[in-house]
Amino acid sequence: MKYVIVLGDGMADCPLEELQGMTPLEYAKTPNMDKLAAAGEIGMVHTIPEGMSPGSDTANLSVLGYDPKIYYSGRSPLEALSIGVDMKATDVSLRCNLVTLSEEQENYEDRKIVDHSAGEISTSDAAILLEAVKQELETEGYKFYAGTSYRHLLLWEQGKVMELTPPHDVLGQTIGQYLPKDDTLREMMKRSYEILSSHPINTERKRQGFNPANSCWFWGAGTRPALSSFQEKTGLRGAMVSAVDLLKGIAVGASMKTIFVEGANGGLNTNYEGKAQAAIDVLTQENYDFVYVHVEAPDEMGHQGSAEKKVQAIQYLDERVIAPLKAGLEQSGEEFRMLVMPDHPTPVSIRTHTGDDVPYLLYDSRKVQQNTWKYNEREAAQSGKRIAKGCEMIDYLIEK
């Protein structure tokens, strides 16, 4: 038996007037997910423990079976694992986004966050910009590490964990009240604007009509995580297919195989087919038992506030991941159970995460049913099935 989770990050949403009162998932043309829903089971699941922030970190830990109340130590440390940063027990890791701030204000504190991802800047351009920041700001106690696209890392030796605001939570807002209380971190962010705003790469980006990556933004502070092995926990050899350092870091922490897919970038135009094929190969050729296929695009489009692009991301997921993955497993002759779900909602209307229940779809190739369900939030809620603790979803999938 093979087990698959296809995770459409932030895919759940709210009804939108521009989509005729439907959610993006309900509005999107998803014949493959709907076919699985009609032959399987749908329901709702609560992935975020009460009192915890609805981040992709806590939510994906939960979906993989790790109770965030026990295992969560901060977002950035999980990403540190992904890029091979060896954290000491006294180190604090912080997420270092390259963001777009408004430029018309004179004072840094009066600027607004225009774009939390600097237009989904390429990894190659971002690495050059981060190197410029590193040359000016890195000291013995503060080390910068390049990640993927706009997502990077600051390691603070002998640091302290503090509450820091995710940039996607304050899009369009004046940043002054959301800056770090720590003097050094706040000053580094201000200096990063001076370094980046006139950098040739950003000058060229603006000339071409792209958002400049003109400031660092620190958030997601935490200490070294200690996840138990996924195989010891479930009895399954597991693999991760994702372009995002956070998910790859969770996989490293859980001693899962991480798979690199050429052209996978966490954006709308990622290599969907490559992800599906990587999942098929690891299950059928390398004989792994479980694969987690993470697609970031719906979440990014939710943060951008684009219903049209979020619908497109969901349709790509259906057509270019779900369809070939199911076909590949059927062709291999393997029996399989496939779970499709978001980690959390990222409503287009508010451009950030919420902790509401999300819809799941569970298909078992051995137990094809005859239902009339389609896969979306409304029908999943109407099914009457609900799993109250997201960290129990993995046991439900593997029938443990």
Describe this structure in words.
It is built from 15 helices and 13 strands. The chain has an 8-stranded mixed β-sheet with strand order 9-8-10-1-11-12-2-13, with helices on both faces. Strands 3, 4, 5, 6 and 7 form a 5-stranded antiparallel β-sheet that branches. By secondary structure, the protein is an alpha/beta fold. The mean pLDDT is 96. It has helices spanning 24-27, 31-39, 56-63, 68-71, 75-82, 123-137, 183-196, 200-207, 230-234, 245-253, 272-284, 297-304, 307-332, 377-382, 393-397, and strands at 2-8, 41-45, 92-101, 113-115, 142-148, 151-156, 215-222, 238-241, 257-259, 290-295, 336-341, 358-364, 386-387. The two termini are 13 Å apart. It folds into 2 domains: 2-72 and 227-397, Alkaline Phosphatase, subunit A (3-Layer(aba) Sandwich), CATH 3.40.720.10; 92-222, no CATH class.
